[in-house]
From TrEMBL, chain A:
Solute-binding protein family 3/N-terminal domain boundaries: 97-319
Cleavable signal peptide: 1-29
Keywords annotated in UniProt: Signal, Transport
Lineage: Bacteria, Bacillati, Actinomycetota, Actinomycetes, Pseudonocardiales
A single Gene Ontology CC term: outer membrane-bounded periplasmic space
SMART domains per the UniProt record, alphabetical: PBPb
Family: Belongs to the bacterial solute-binding protein 3 family.
Pfam families referenced in this protein's UniProt entry, alphabetically: SBP_bac_3
Protein name: Polar amino acid transport system substrate-binding protein
GO biological process, one term: amino acid transport
PROSITE patterns from the UniProt entry: PROKAR_LIPOPROTEIN
From TrEMBL, chain B:
Keywords assigned: Membrane, Transmembrane, Transmembrane helix
Residue ranges crossing the lipid bilayer per the database entry: 31-53, 201-219, 231-257, 411-434
Official protein name in the record: Secreted protein
Domain of life: Bacteria
Length: 333, 442
């Protein structure tokens, strides 16, 4: 028989043993840290800035003007290789090459063909036309690749003879440089991911939107009714990279540049209507008025001889550009 | 002279302290105490000396087995990454599908960087700064290679987005990976230098203890001579001899050792460090050169950096690293190799000048050809030769470091057991010598 006393003793032992075992097992500390990563540093194109301060230098009193109106050509063009003495063109001819500021990152306008290593595009064709008019050889060109932000400075410092780089003629820029007659009219639109619900510029408010530094697109975005968070990069193709990497919600600039992006990636789409008009002109240093008249003559000639249309068909025809008709030249004389 | 022992009742002896104090008054008691003290100092000196020497031995082994290989691995990471960057840029410049040898070179660079990174990460646990660098490298290297492959995929389709991906990859390399690799090398080299210093440092504590021991032995013998009118105590003489032998042996070995370590420092690790700096700068220059052409004028920063860094390779001033390396080189072979490096650096600077002239003069295609072509006077050829010279000289420096540091370790051969045995001999001598005198009081 088991007495109550013994039962209590047994119960006490039965309780005490697991308690002892538990005490032996309860150790302080934690398993070794597995070096869990909680935040990422995503790669970014060099020189990215988010919401950079505005740099509209000559904001103070820009005289009103017609930015698309240039200087009228001075009679028929001189024969290639026989530029009249004392002109800017003669200096270029004596140097043996035309120095042109261009882009190598904007598909269809100015880009480096990775297969041939040569610069190609609609803008490059314009440079070749000018070189052909001066030398009789479209290849006598030294290309200097410049970013959007460097265009005005390169002209003011005389580092280049002309800039052909999807450059919009504006009154603010006319203060510092000259423009040729308009050789193409583009308009700002928006590119987004194919699956994106965004359908136009009015829906970009507060979203991260990419644009190139020093471009008119960046100013237009700031002036939009629903201003986005602007991510500024050096080159337009950096915008495509950031869109592909999901680091921006949209890219907004001229439809021509955007068409080049759509051509490189079927997973992005152009949305919304054009909300600006961008007359492209060839930039020329302020003092070289003879050169402006000469380049306008070359443009007229290329339209008349069909090289403009051929170039358009080659680069922009399939990209769904607005019209195959060259813009009518306007002059301020 | 006889000291009078005071008569005390047995019950008055309270505790061991009292016993010692009282026995110190008698000559035999005093002698026993002196013996105990001498034995204690001998034991302490022997143990401390053995431990110190063992520590030096371990430091020397660690230098050869860990510190130097880690510093070498860190510089290997930098070299491989930087070369990968320059090679990717060259492949881009060559147009179309990149040449097979450039692709292979890039793949080897990435594989080499990965292996060296694995090696370098084995021993960073103790240093949070070093482990932070390793972390950056291991996190960003896969990202970098991913970007380069995306660039290739776009390039093959003829899309200029490829160039944009390559620029992003290069920016990542130059803003994160290369600085981390350079920092890691600096940390590893600092640790190497610290260990070299600690190997060469004079063991003052041991010296003080030995001096104390010698002084105590001399004093004891003079005391005994005074007390017993006997000139020599064989035991103590043996003990003194043992201490002197270990002192001379130890001092000679340590002097030899620190001489070898100093050689290893000068002709080995310092020489290697200067060469590593030269190599890092030459790799940066090469990347700048190709990137200037890739950017096609849109990269004034690259050419500026070239000018600054080239001064450390071909300049006339003090900052010319190749000249410094030549001054540090030991032996004709090493000097010859560095001299060749100097010549090839000059040839490279020449080629670079031609590239800039061609590019500025509108002959872009020729500039590219001079930069990446295989002609004997092309920049690629000169840079390849320079890199080979630097690598050969670097390996010679590493060899020198290994030989000299191993020799330094060899100088300490047998010293630790030797010192232990001599300490035992000294202890035995002290015990026997004093017991002999104590016996005379019975």
């Amino acid at each position: 028989m088991i007495t109550g006393h013994r039962v209590r003793a047994l119960a006490a032992v039965a309780l005490a043993v697991p308690a002892l075992l538990l005490t032996a097992c309860s150790v302080s500390g934690k398993p070794v840290d597995l070096a869990t990563v909680t935040s990422l540093d995503r790669p970014q194109p060099a020189g990215v800035e988010v919401n950079p301060p505005t740099t509209t230098g000559s904001a103070a009193a820009v005289p009103p003007c017609d930015p698309a109106a240039s200087l009228r050509p001075a009679g028929p063009l001189p024969a290639p290789g026989a530029m009249p003495g004392g002109t800017t063109m003669k200096t270029i001819q004596d140097r043996g090459r035309l120095i042109a500021g261009v882009d190598q990152n904007t598909f269809l306008f100015g880009f480096r063909n990775p297969t041939s290593n040569a610069l190609e595009g609609f803008d490059i064709d314009r440079v070749r036309d000018v070189a052909a008019a001066i030398f009789g050889d479209p290849g006598k060109v030294q290309y200097k690749v410049i970013t959007s932000a460097e265009r005005i400075d390169a002209l003011k410092k005389g580092e280049v003879d002309i800039v052909v780089r999807t450059m919009t003629a504006t009154c603010a820029r006319w203060v510092d440089i000259n423009f040729s007659a308009t050789y193409y009219v583009a308009g700002q639109r928006v590119v987004v991911d194919r699956s994106s619900p965004i359908t136009g510029v009015d829906q970009l408010g507060g979203k991260r939107v990419c644009a190139a530094k020093g471009s008119t697109s960046i100013q237009k975005l700031r002036e939009a009714p629903a201003p986005p968070e602007v991510v500024a990069v050096d080159n337009w193709s950096d915008c495509l990279v950031m869109l592909q990497q999901g680091q921006v919600a949209a890219v907004s600039t001229d439809d021509t540049i955007l068409s080049g992006m759509v051509a490189q990636d079927p997973n992005v789409k152009l949305v919304g209507p054009r909300f600006t008009e961008e007359p492209y002109g060839i930039g020329i240093p302020k003092q070289n008025e003879d050169m402006v008249r000469f380049v306008n003559g070359v443009l007229e000639q290329s339209v008349a001889r069909g090289s403009w249309a051929a170039s358009y068909a080659k680069w922009l025809g399939q990209a769904g550009g607005p019209a195959a008709a060259p813009p009518a030249a306007r002059y301020r004389d | 002279m006889v000291t009078v022992t005071p008569e005390r009742p047995a019950d008055a002896r309270t505790g061991p302290v009292g016993r010692v104090t009282r026995s110190a008054v008698t000559t035999p008691g005093r002698l026993s105490l002196v013996a105990v003290a001498l034995l204690l100092v001998t034991a302490v000196t022997g143990i401390v000396a053995a431990l110190t020497l063992q520590a030096k031995r371990d430091t020397l082994d660690d230098l050869v087995a860990h510190r130097e290989p880690l510093a070498a691995a860190a510089q290997q990471i930098f070299r491989s990454l930087s070369d990968a960057d320059a090679t990717a840029a060259s492949a881009f410049l060559s147009g179309g599908v990149e040449p097979a040898e450039l692709r292979t070179r890039y793949e080897f660079d990435i594989a080499q960087a990965g292996s060296a990174l694995a090696k370098a990460s084995t021993d960073v646990g103790g240093d949070p700064l070093a482990s932070a660098q390793v972390e950056v490298l291991s996190q960003q290297l896969p990202v970098y290679s991913g970007l380069v492959e995306t660039a290739r995929a776009n390039n093959r389709q003829g899309f200029p987005a490829g160039a944009a991906y390559l620029r992003e990859a290069s920016a990542l390399m130059r803003s994160k990976l290369l600085p981390a690799a350079e920092k890691l090398y600096e940390i590893d080299y600092d640790r190497l230098q610290t260990e070299q210093e600690s190997a060469r440092s004079v063991p003052w504590v041991v010296i003080a203890l030995v001096v104390l021991l010698v002084a105590a032995l001399v004093a004891t013998q003079r005391y005994l001579t005074r007390k017993t009118n006997r000139l020599l105590n064989v035991g103590l003489v043996v003990a003194s001899a043992a201490v002197l032998v270990s002192l001379v042996w130890g001092a000679t070995a340590l002097l030899l050792m620190s001489g070898h370590v100093a050689d290893a420092e000068r002709n080995g690790s310092q020489q290697v460090d200067v060469l590593v700096q030269a190599r890092i700068n030459s790799l940066k220059c090469r990347a700048d050169e190709t990137l200037t052409l890739v950017a096609r004028g849109d990269g004034p920063g690259y050419e500026q950096e070239w000018q600054q860094l080239a001064a450390t390779l071909v300049g006339d001033g003090e900052q010319n690293l190749l000249r410094q390396a030549k001054a540090l080189a030991s032996g004709d072979a090493a000097t010859g190799e560095v001299q060749q490096a100097v010549d090839n650096a000059a040839a490279w600077a020449d080629a670079h000048r031609r590239i800039r002239e061609l590019d500025e003069g509108g002959q872009y295609e020729d500039a590219v050809k001079t930069a990446i072509g295989a002609e004997p006077n092309s920049s690629a050829t000169a840079f390849g030769k320079l890199d080979k010279n630097l690598l050969t000289a670097l390996n010679a420096g590493r060899e020198e470091f290994f030989t000299k540091t191993t020799k330094a370790g060899g100088a300490l051969t047998g010293l630790v057991p030797g010192v232990a045995v001599l300490a035992l001999v000294a202890a035995a001598g002290i015990t026997l010598g004093i017991r002999e005198r104590l016996r005379e009081y019975r």
